[in-house]
Amino acid sequence: MEQALDRASLGDFLRARREALQPEDVGLRRGTRRRARGLRREEAAELCDMSADYFARLERGSGPQPSQRMAAAIARGLGLTPDERDHLFLLCGHRTPQRLPRSEHVDPGLMRTLDRLQDTPAQIMGPLGETLLQTPPAVALLGEQTHYTGDARSAAYRWFTDPAARERYLLDDHELSSRVNVVLLRAASTKEGPGSQASRLVANLLRHSTEFASLWDRQEVGLRWSRARRFVHPEVGRIDLFCQNLQDPDQSQSLLILTATPGTSRWGSRPRTGRWVSRTRASAWSSMNRSRRAGSSGCNGRYAAPAFSTPSSATIISKERSTHTPTTSSGPTPMSRSRCARCSARRSNCR
Questions:
Q1: Of all helices (H) and strands (E), which one includes residue 154?
Q2: Neighbouring residues of 154: CB distance < 8 A, sequence distance ≥ 6
Q3: Which residues 6+ apart lie within 8 Å of 263 measured at CB?
Q4: Which residues does 129 contact at the CB level (< 8 Å), separation at least 6?
Q5: Predicted pLDDT of residue 305
Q6: Is the distance from CB of 253 to CB of 110 less than 8 angstroms?
Q7: 254/309: higher pLDDT
Q8: What pLDDT digit, counting tens, does each position of 181-190 carry?
Q9: How are beta strands 254-260 and 228-233 bridged, if at all?
Q10: Alpha-carbon distance 221 to 180, whole Å?
Q11: Is 312 within 8 Å of 165 (Cβ atoms)?
Q12: Residue 30 confidence class, pLDDT cut points 50, 70, 90
């Protein structure tokens, strides 16, 4: 059912959003004679692909009802957030547009956060379990996961169709992981509705996996991943980590951060972990480079991983803290100039 056009509120909202935008925000020069608090009406109208007269009439509350296409153009031109766009559509007398999952482009806020986690196993996930970006320690821990195509991009799909997808997870956790994957796919398909990507993925799994079909018939809802994650690495062995899940504002992408839990059992030994990190460092870099060259989904060639911070990765994966202190003739070597896999110092200064 269409809503009633609220001309007065629409005008107030457009004026407030126009004045909140500064010329520098949209690549314009401010100049020396500007008196407007934000953008001029002519500038805002050009950004919204409409005439200055039409935009001015909308602000004054005397313009005709904008179409849905025009409302979408205004939302793009003024750089509105999803919530602000929905509010604009209601003021224009239209239903709010459906929010489609943004699985192809990494959320800028999550990417900035990931950039500061290069010494930590972390990865950005899409709404159906697509791995969009991984830090080098995440590649070393879980393997390269950004190169898949088609339905195999979904971690849930691989869980039920590819036995190799379960190899790095503790066998005792497989049953719960299967149930959680089914519950999350059920929630996604219900939210997105028939004909959606989630519904199509469910239909394919019902055809190809008897385990999935059996769990689907249980009609379970509400299960969540445990924050305690247990992995089995082929070289290091069992690794117990704590998983923190950060959601972006529109809930279409999430950032998974894995850190060591103090007091967990089976802490890795220092020499064994040091050798493993040295071996996996090259493979992690190789995987990241292949992903960028192939233009994997979400990255689009814009992501350049900072240097692999070996000592911090060893600390997280082995859950131990190194006490080795490198020295030079001029004092301690900065951690950011790491070379040695054990202590972060240049090898010539390591002792």
A1: none
A2: 128, 129, 130, 201
A3: none
A4: 154, 155, 156, 157, 181, 184
A5: 35
A6: yes
A7: 254
A8: 999 999 989 8
A9: unpaired
A10: 9
A11: no
A12: confident
Q: What is the mean pLDDT of the chain?
A: 76
Tokens of 189: 């398909």
Contact 137, 315 (CB under 8 A): no
Token digits of residue 290? 């292949």
Stated pTM of the model: 0.53
Exposure of 176 in the CB half-sphere (CA atoms within 13 A): 14
Tell me the two tokens of residue 219: 């009609």
The type of residue at 179 is: R
Give the pLDDT confidence of 304-334 residue by residue, as tens digits: 333 333 334 433 343 333 334 444 444 443 3
* CB neighbour list of residue 149: distance below 8 Å, 6 or more residues apart: none
Angle at 230 between CA 225 and CA 235, to 5 degrees: 145
Q: How many other CB atoms are found less than 10 A from the CB of residue 232?
A: 15
Enumerate the H helices of 24-170 as residue ranges: 41-47, 52-60, 68-77, 82-91, 108-115, 136-142, 155-161
Q: How many other CB atoms are there within 10 angstroms of residue 203's CB atom?
A: 11
The H-assigned helical ranges of the chain are: 7-20, 41-47, 52-60, 68-77, 82-91, 108-115, 136-142, 155-161, 174-192, 197-208, 210-216, 270-294, 310-318
